[in-house]
């Protein structure tokens, strides 16, 4: 009976996990909506910075004001780009808490902001270098690719934290709604945290028991394999001794045969 109950609990846990994964996949930010937010947060602001104060277009004095920046020009440009990063992440966080965007948008915001920031700042030393255009493009591409890969890993980590936070909020909201519908006292945040802590404690206990059981099974298998190996070695030695005895017996018989002949 207890085994059946444990199997049912495990099945419910797996169903809950896969339901959350499915829900996360189905509630990703729509592509068009995501592009619109990225245009507002990162793409348009960084393009404006690149056009009007970027070092690559500084020879076009009609609209570019890179040479008009305070000295050092590159240092002041860094401050401008950092301000754009602050703008992008402020909009991202606010839109996430107001549920205008979902957790996956953190990854795209991080990648776009870091790549644009790097491309603009690389122009400060590439423009004045003696490298030809092809080499500059290759260097920009490699640096941008490296930054994008790093941003992807970091963005996935931030997205995971944001997703877990959203799940906790939804669980609390569901508990509050259920209590309200059943006419029960509305639980406080502290009570909800205690319930969640109890669940996590039970999960950790279950995992610890499963780990102990796995260790016992592994030790038993290793001991069985060692015993089998020891038995095999013993059998091999016995067979070797018997083979030597048979060989000696055959030699003795051969000598007797010669003598009789």
Report on this structure.
The chain has 261 residues and is mainly α. Helices cover 83% and strands 0% of the residues. It has six helices and no strands. Helix 2 (31-53) packs parallel to helix 4 (105-126), helix 3 (73-97) runs antiparallel to helix 4 and helix 4 (105-126) runs antiparallel to helix 5. The longest helix is centred in the C-terminal third of the chain and has 72 residues, at 189-260.
Radius of gyration over all CA atoms, rounded: 35 Å
Count of β-strands: 0
Number of helices: 6
Helix content: over 70%
Structural class: mainly alpha
Stretches where pLDDT is under 50 for at least 5 consecutive residues are 1-14
Terminal-residue CA separation: 81 Å
Main beta sheet strand tally, sense and closure: none
Shape: flat
What is the arithmetic mean of pLDDT?
77
Percentage of residues in strands: under 5%
| Order of secondary-structure elements | HHHHHH
Helix and strand arrangement:
Layout: H1 2-26, H2 31-53, H3 73-97, H4 105-126, H5 133-181, H6 189-260
Helix pairs in contact: 2-3, 2-4, 3-4, 4-5
Features:
261 residues, mainly alpha, 83% helix, disordered N terminus
